[in-house]
Amino acid sequence: MQKRYYEWSPGIAYCVGLIASDGSLSKDGRHIDLTSVDYEQLENFCEGMGRALPISSKSKARKANEQPAYRVQFSDVAFYDFLLLVGLTPNKSKTMTRLNVPSRCYVHFLRGVFDGDGSYYGYYDKRWRSSFMFYLTITSASRPFLEFIREKNVQHLKTGIGALNIANGAYILSYAKRDTIIIAENMYRDASRLFLTRKRAKLEGFIREAKNAIITPDARVVKLADT
User: Fold this and answer.
1) Class of 10-92 per CATH?
2) pTM score, two decimals?
């Protein structure tokens, strides 16, 4: 059997981002695990890897508001070694720092991180009529990892530095409207099919809402334009 070999590509970069956020490496030097409540995310992972990996059910929903979890678990020494060279390790949650991601693949890696541990929220600020605000966040147990993400976003995407805070034992990197638009437009510019549909749809909905607004010189949204 020919030994597998891995090199950077948009698909592999996306998969590395998913593993950095939702995945784990076993201590045996060969097994990789990715668990998610989004079945689509695991399908995307398999497509990015270029392999028909089995997707199994890890847990069933026990309550009405719970979602079942799914899992891809496989043995691949070559990919495991590739991840070690990237900078991932077993028990990475709190030890993960800077990763060796090439510039040309960074936005695909970032999209994987966002699909794994990213979120968003938006609201109308009652202080100003029709002022729609929205934010993008990435959560991690490792502050140095989020500092790495922040640095690369400034370097490659020309964002601001965002805000880095801690809540409930986890660190959260947050971006407001302007930087969220920059990040989203870069993440999805050449995304192919590798993205979570619900997250992309929601973010792009926020951006359309903002771009259909008429802005006053002091940057307050005074009314929404007709569409």
Assistant:
1) alpha beta
2) 0.86
